[in-house]
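Lab notebook, bench 4. We co-purified these components, and the gel suggests they stay together. Before we commit to crystallization screens, I want a quick structural picture of the whole thing.
Request: model the full complex, all chains together.
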Amino acid sequence: MNRIEERLQQVKEKNEKAFITYMTAGLPDMAGCAALIKAQAEAGIDVVELGIPFSDPVADGPVIQAASYKSIQQGTNLKKVFEMVAQVRADGCQAPLVFMMYFNTVLHYGPEAFAKKCAEVGVDGLIIPDLPYEEQGQLREALDKTAEAPILIQLVTPVSGDRIPMLLEDARGFVYCVSSMGVTGQAAEFHRDVVHYLEQVRAVSKIPVMMGFGIRTAADVLPMKDIIDGCIVGSHFINLMEENNYSTETAKEYVSTFKKEMNGISCETGH
Amino acid sequence: MSSKYYGEFGGQYVAETLMNTLAELERAFEEAIADPKFWEEYHYYLKEYVGRETPLYLAERLSEKYGTKIYLKREDLNHTGAHKINNVIGQILLAKRMGKTKVIAETGAGQHGVATATGAALFNMECKVYMGSEDIERQHLNVMRMEMLGAKVVSVESGSNTLKDATNEAIRTWAKEAEDTFYVIGSAVGPHPYPRMVKEFQKCISVEAKRQFMEKEGRLPEVVMACVGGGSNSIGMFADFIDEPGVELIGVEAAGMGIETGKHASAMALGKPGTLHGMRSYLLQDDDGNVQLAHSISAGLDYPGVGPEHAYLRDSGRAQYVSITDDEAMEALAELCKLEGIIPAIESAHALAYAFKKAKTMTKDQAIVLCLSGRGDKDVHTIESYFSGNGYLN
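Here is the predicted assembly.
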């Protein structure tokens, strides 16, 4: 079973909400990035989303754009990220890993070679924001041919409307619900009909519904708690890491606090 | 394959957020082009406001010098100084029809930005133009023009701070504001239906040229050529000739400082198929699949990709794509000034430079029709610094 599916199944059985963070691969450097993945795994992260930096991150806001740019300047590329992931797995870390990337990076590597390499090093899922459902054919074909290939995660937005059933028809892993319009990293001004929209997705989805874009703390998602199965924090986590020198302790603290608060366990009473 | 593609090229490589927006746009576009009233209005503005039709001028002294007939399709005589306005009128009329009240655009050198700001003023729409901070510095006069026309110029500081980054930012804004905002794309690029739409609104160039040439020569020309950045004037110049197999189509890209130096903008010569700005097409990219910066003395050709229909025309062999260096283009520009009294845009001078080469292989009864896509007023500073740098004027 795919690590993502397995993990989210366990979370559901415990009647808990899942938590996913996003970080740009290669920051602060490859070793530091690997350490952060492992630290979060220890703190109970459910899925780690690793952003593969691209020169033209058209679905990302300023925070992730800047992080991508910095990482590229430091020499990060797909090949090095694969090596880092292989090492993280060799070190025994089994946290589900998802690549968030742009399609040109896949095309350039070659979709079939890419699918094989992901399977080989242990990448469990893919989020490709500029590859909408209608354009997924070529990549799906490559993934279908590959044993233990990563899951292609589907994104749904507040304006997807009548496209939702189509998007979710064969979706696996989890559905990534974009909570606001536009790009990643905007403040938590959720689209006016966000609750209605999440309910719409909930009604159709056979897999966990995860909400992302613009979330900072567990309090942001508490109003939607009964509709969603968990949430994703990206830009805020990157800022937090920047401000705290990519400290593994800060990452651990943030992840465990978020998880506790989201699952209704007060931190104050914890110690 | 559906009509979203040109062979393997084209498509809609955009965020899910934009898929319904693109579907809405496609429906509105199909309805509009099936409606004679829409075309009536479009042609009214092209005639009364833009000043069409533009002449097809036989450049006599050039023709004599190079030994074949060289006809110039004078898009430089359009209002705002280039072909860009044809497309802007079409897209803004469509935006109005869709009930949008705001338009956004990307711009590199500022020509498409000025054209969009002009159209927005004409049709009373709010207008924001995204422009890289480096381009804002380099093209200060066009920034002022846009502001005089009532547009807001938004400085983009990300990546390379140039056209491709301005385009990224325009796409990001569109994803957020599509409910009341229409994105006016300036070149034959972007997700479907943009490449088709731009072709439809630039097609007037070749429809006129074909008729004008017939009237003058009673036949079709041997060669039709135009410069290619994203490819809007060239697709307009080719459009009505594509189904005329006897007509040779040539697109001229910018070789910048020379293809071998790596500082160029020839996506067709050295690019690999990739995805950028919503389309799959030839794309300049590095070993890691990141988009490479283009280089050309002409800001309008300074784009790392190319429209998907051009990629298809190249691979199918229907059109040929060649490239011309900065130096060759500047030499051709000077020649057109001196021999014909026309100061062309540096973009258009690339096509001219290749026409001079091509003419040597042709006879004096044969003819080249070349799209003189814009005038050189905008380029005088660049021209000055180029020629003084080379000691040319001394």
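The radius of gyration of chain B is 19 Å. Worth comparing against the SEC data before the next meeting. Residues 74 and 372 of chain B are 5 Å apart (CA to CA).
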